[in-house]
Every structure is written in structure tokens, then in C-alpha cells.
Amino acid sequence: MKVPVQITYRDVDQSDALDERIRFKVQKLEETFDRMTSCHVIVERPHASHAQGNRYAVHFGINVPGKEIMVKRDSADHAHEDVYIALKNSYQAARRQLKEYVDRMRAH
């Protein structure tokens, strides 16, 4: 992986296993578009009411030439009580947006 990755945890304990999984996901994004210049991933547990539970949110900020692709994926269901599911869902959204960006570039 040649893309610099910054990982930020907010109200979540840092985890080597999660860091490794995030870096793997960024590497997969790089396979989609090898001209990424950097990627910032934020893992947070927004403050929520007791009724909503402790859900995770994972955000990707992907820098490509001339643009920053921002992906913010929050979930109202209980699936995001697992940080790895929140990461998977956010990664899938980031990959879709990156692929759309690549397709638009190739069309011009």
C-alpha cells in the first residue's frame, strides 16, 4: 500500500486489529483507483440516547487528484453496534463512490 492512511478514533478505544482491517480496506480501495493521494478514516461512537444504544460510525475521506470524496455512513439499525459491520458498510459506500468517480473520469 502506497497511500498514506490516517486513522482517528473518537470516543472509541484504538485497536490494532481494527487498524489492520482499516488498512486492508484502504488497500482494496487503492486497487479500485491507484491514483489516490491519501485516506483519512474516522471511527467514532457518537453520543446517543440510551434508547438508540451504542452505535459506531465510520467515515472515509479519500483524496484523489482535484477532489476529496467524503463518505459518512451512520445507521439507525442495530447492525452498527458492531464496529466491523459499520466499517464494512462504510467501505462499500466509499468503493461505490470511488468507482463512480473513476467512471466519470474515463467518460471524459
Describe this structure in words.
This protein is 39% helix and 26% strand. The protein has 108 residues and is of the alpha+beta class. The chain contains 2 helices and 4 strands. The chain has one domain: Double Stranded RNA Binding Domain (2-Layer Sandwich). Strands 1-2-3-4 form a 4-stranded mixed sheet, with helices on one face. α1 links the parallel β1 (5-10) and β2. The two termini are 28 Å apart. The radius of gyration is 14 Å and the shape is globular.
Short description:
The protein is of the alpha+beta class. The protein has helices at 16-32, 83-107, and strands at 5-10, 38-44, 57-64, 67-73.
Q: Could you outline the blueprint of secondary structure elements for this entry?
A:
Layout: E1 5-10, H1 16-32, E2 38-44, E3 57-64, E4 67-73, H2 83-107
Parallel strand pairs: 1-2
Antiparallel strand pairs: 2-3, 3-4
